[in-house]
Design brief:
Chain lengths: 66, 167
């Protein structure tokens, strides 16, 4: 069974302000997880990465944690 | 050079959807926030841009502290007023807004980027840890209140001791 959170919840766009959603795609150190673990399509993964990087720049997510 | 600045050369006169996210310095008083946001809005309104959605600035705890320079010192703040604005405007407007926000002393950090008209906020709630019922709890029995006893005289104590030792 696929563990694609975006498809399961019918999410079309990833917003950098959705911190709860983006936190699902970073590990405890704050690093972005790969496609193997996120289960996203290539397009979704790119969009998710872009949103996380925007959130980091705006201080909503950490660059490094722990 | 930002992505927005790169767009202007080829796409002048094209109307697009943009979003701007910004942090207002925490030293600004709450009653002055409207003035700062009004300044951002006026740039878009002046050239005929239309607003689609807005998030009013609210004091937000950041994931890492950012510093601002106050005179000679750099002071760290971990709470900033974060707000955002989605609008439709010409490519040149986005570039002008970017430049104006760079110059503004009240806006510490900002970001202008292209987006879509639809609401991009996801209705997603992160799964919470389930509350597990504990089965290994220890039941405590309420202590009985101690019976009030009358004070014992020394003579009685001596007598009782002698009785014990005599046996």
């Amino acid at each position: 069974m696929s563990n694609n959170i975006l498809t399961q919840n019918d999410i079309q766009h990833v917003d950098y302000k959705d911190i709860d959603l983006l936190k699902q795609f970073v590990n405890p150190h704050g690093r972005i997880v790969g496609r193997k673990k996120s289960g996203l399509t290539a397009k979704q993964q790119r969009e998710m990465e872009r949103a996380i990087k925007r959130a980091r720049f705006m201080g909503l997510l950490p660059y490094v944690a722990k | 050079m930002s992505a927005i600045a790169l767009e202007t050369a080829d796409d002048a006169g094209v109307s697009r959807i943009y979003e701007v996210g910004y942090h207002i310095v925490p030293t600004v008083k709450e009653e002055d926030l409207d003035k700062v946001v009004g300044g951002i809005r006026s740039i878009v309104e002046k050239v005929g841009g239309s607003f689609i959605a807005e998030g009013a600035p609210a004091l937000t705890r950041l994931a890492y502290p950012m510093t601002i320079r106050e005179g000679e010192k750099y002071i760290e703040h971990d709470r900033w007023y974060f707000g955002w604005l989605k609008f439709e405007a010409d490519v040149a407007v986005a570039s002008a807004l970017d430049e104006a926000m760079k110059r503004s002393a009240d806006i510490m950090r900002h970001m202008v980027f292209r987006t879509v008209r639809e609401d991009t906020r996801a209705k997603y709630r992160a799964p919470q840890l389930r509350e597990v019922k504990r089965t290994d709890t220890i039941k405590t029995i309420a202590r009985r209140p101690e019976e009030a006893s009358a004070p014992v005289s020394e003579e009685d104590l001596e007598k009782a001791l002698q009785d014990i030792t005599a046996e």
